[in-house]
Design a protein that fits this description.
The structure is a single chain. The chain is mostly helical. The protein has 18 helices and no strands. The longest helix is centred in the N-terminal third of the chain and has 37 residues. The chain starts with a helix and ends in a 9-residue tail after the last helix. About 45% of the residues are buried. The C terminus is likely disordered.
Length: about 400
Amino acid sequence: MGLLVLVLPAYAVNFAFLVISGRLLGITAFGIFYSALSIINILIAPAVITNLFFARKITLSTVKGGYDAALPHFAAYVRYILVWGGLAGAGLFFVLLITGSALGVESLALIILIPAVTVSIYLAESIRALFQGLKKILSLGFYTLFWTILRFLLGLFGIFVVALPWAGLFGIFAAGLTVFCLIFFLVIKKTGMRLFRNGDVEKHANYTGIVSFSASYTVFVLTMYLDNIIAYLFMGRTDLGLYSAACILSKSIILLTNPIVQVFFPVIVEQNVKKAVQPDTVIKSFLITLLLSGAAVAVVCFSPKMVCQYLLGLPECNIPLLRGVAASAVPICILRIIVLIQLGKGYNYHTFLLLPVILLISVFLFLLSDTIVWYAWGYCLMCWIAVFYSVLKTWPFGPGQR
């Protein structure tokens, strides 16, 4: 309950950051800014899984050997981020540098900051894994809230001063790096740098499966942000800005159901290990997800003008667009439950079954990219197709891989 009390304000601050950014930047620049954030959100998708993975390692080590036995796993996590994240970030930079003009990335600063922000978020997320693994729930909540507020302040300060998308990204980068360095300094002050020079943990710890696990969840997040990526590539900049502003709501509705996932996923893993995933657990998760996401969408659909004026601050309200974008949140939330059931059962490659659907969605959205309202409703329709396709290809009950 304490975590929820702290996390909900963090969600509100994050929502306010996007809304105020849209007002400061204007429609065109905000479309570019939100598209960059969408790319970053896809790139950081594995952080959700790696955090759970290393939090579990930290918890088990704490039970067996206390605090000192758990910290080497945190050190291993940080080393992996610095080494592999650094290499991946450098590779991404060169890819964006070479293909930037073809992809419509107009700014060198954006090309530099997209990989930099991604790595800084991974580093900041490692602290969340540490607190979660040590079961310091209040510390986790305060840390999340502090990070979100700092990102809000630094991001908006950059946008206010420079009035360009890259300035907001630089604020996000600075916030992530700052909160990581603060906690990291406290840890090394207690343990000494010897902890982070010792490679024994990687030699003996079982980290197999983490790559396929993370890549699989990334495919789902790609589906979640595919509409923003296709819009960035093929829409006019004004339409992109309008669509991105409307997307603040749909993505926030998905974020609203995150606490369900955090509770639901460990239960699925435990049930699968003991015997089989219980139907009542799955049904409850689906019903709660439908209730929360459906209620939020209903508010948008029945009070679109209020949402436009008081929440999004849009000068003009395209009601069909707003309703179409909001409605897509429901199938995405359901699809995430299906994906996590399969991952919880040990089917690490399940989500790759969505790749043909992702290709179909991409082609379909490209054909609709000239008509923004049809584009929104077309994406919603394709998300429901992805849900039905996943249900036909998988079965949520029964035992998974042992």
